[in-house]
Design a protein that fits this description.
2 helices, elongated, two-stranded antiparallel ribbon, alpha+beta
């Protein structure tokens, strides 16, 4: 498989950056499982601590949780999915 430049490995440092997370230090008030936000201001001045904690928890669980395995091309493998059906004539042309 070719290395795709636009692919971000789930759970990687690039994935944490995409989610707006960084590793928390001792001086950070709001943290979850050693992570905190890179920028709190993106949520606006009216964001409550409870809301920020919920969003942070969700982002960290997205980063550290189980991620789906890539689809297998082997029909006997567990993650196999059949190719998408494309009708003769080029797919969705003519559908309104």
């Amino acid at each position: 498989m070719k290395k795709r430049r636009d692919y971000i490995e789930p759970g990687s440092a690039a994935h944490a950056i995409q989610l707006g997370l960084r590793e928390a230090g001792a001086e950070d008030d709001l943290q979850y499982d050693t992570w905190t936000f890179t920028d709190f201001e993106r949520y606006g001045p009216n964001a409550t601590d409870r809301y920020l904690k919920a969003v942070l928890t969700q982002a960290v669980r997205t980063l550290t949780g189980q991620h789906p395995k890539l689809q297998s091309k082997d029909p006997l493998a567990p993650n196999y999915a059949q190719p998408m059906f494309v009708p003769q004539g080029g797919g969705a042309s003519g559908i309104v």
